[in-house]
């Protein structure tokens, strides 16, 4: 189940499910070392005389309303249990500058009689993602539970203090521990360990009482001790307030123009910026997604990596919204990743090491091949030019001109077929097929145009001429070899030939190979709309015809060509924006922006895909690229609308 709530500060990221369970906890890098990794750190309530001796875990028979405080990366969620006559209101955050996750839980007894209540928390933590070799202790001096191993420490505490605790081995029957509500006060356990704490309160009829709970993350005992003292001295209430104010100030630092787009679009736009920031590591890596549930459907791997392609689009969204400082850190992170032959590989870990990959380094007959998607290399150069255009800071480009821009441009210039002028085969945008793709060729064209502009800026006129010449040869190759006159549209690829209609064919106009109103572009985009539209009430655009990835059922491809993707649907909107000659021409793009807004989750998350039958999120959620594409589309819409006004 994709995660509806995420809070983080670039070093500590916590994902929560709809039942208030912590399901992911990344530290000290976003996307690296998930110390919960999809297990459940649950919340339960026991009311004396009402539970039949058992704790009610949130989710059993609780109703809920999930959300965030407006323009803040602070949750605002409600849970109610009619049988127990109990309501909970939770505000949760990760402090923007301190690695501590803080919860405020307001408990209301809605019954007409007084009650004695217990609030319980379980912690299924495995440090370094390995359940072996941990220690968990109760520290009486700090009145806290501490899980530790090597240089990973997690301190769990509360205010007022919890009154019961238990530390025990993993495999302890949760129904026999947290569900009973009776903790045995065992103070230490080694190996694979779980821990539990409980708070007891007496509530009069109609009374509300507040409990604070926090998890401090550090690399030493003294660091988590410092954080615990900080929360106690500054108070958790004040620290939640600090977090809310910081995130509000961060996302509202610019006064964006939204033309006539409705408030719900504005809300999702700002929330998207906050979600994007939560998925970026403080050392610069822009992570694709951090939802561990995908492990079950992705060959026991995740999306917690830096894909250069995704990151380039996210960087462009952040630059256009004036968050260029984050983008500069990303380019610094990327600088050391470029292969000495001038290309990026498939994906990287947040720490800057090479990540897992599935692109083979040899062909089926044993010949050496490059395991790359060349669009990733090209798009980083495009994003760099976009960064320079917006910041106008040549000092930001100086460190990467010779170390990244020139080597990448040289590779793109040389890695081509002399007979067609087109790039040699590489893997496509979706990382599934190796060929000469229209999308890849379009991005390489754009990358070389941008590299030529950089070269001219630095006075390297011979290089500028060389890169422009290569770009023009690619443009001619796209027109001559990738456009099919009989089909009346662009091919997905050649070598081998693939006529599949793919939403990524929008790239021919998006990257300015041809103007958006060129007849060949128009016919291609109309094919995308007619063939890839999902013809259910959910709507949207699929990736490509007969897409089986994350398929929920077998269905007629004429009705459901594949699951709808937010990014693919927004690409169509971007083309309509490019095409618009009057305000009325923007209506279709406006409809798509509203479609996306209406199909975000109740907490404002954009997943990778949607279930074509009920519109529920599929695959990872949130997908950083989806939120970035929404931001880019809204900004393009407003810019075009103002130019036409």
From TrEMBL:
Domain GH15-like: 282-578
InterPro entries according to UniProt: 6-hairpin_glycosidase_sf, 6hp_glycosidase-like_sf, GH15-like
One Pfam family matching this protein: Glyco_hydro_15
Gene Ontology terms describing biological process: carbohydrate metabolic process
Entry superkingdom: Archaea
SUPFAM superfamilies to which the protein is assigned, alphabetical: Six-hairpin glycosidases
GO molecular-function term, one example from the UniProt record: hydrolase activity, hydrolyzing O-glycosyl compounds
Name recorded for this polypeptide: Glucoamylase (Glucan-1,4-alpha-glucosidase), GH15 family
Organism from which the protein derives: Methanococcoides vulcani
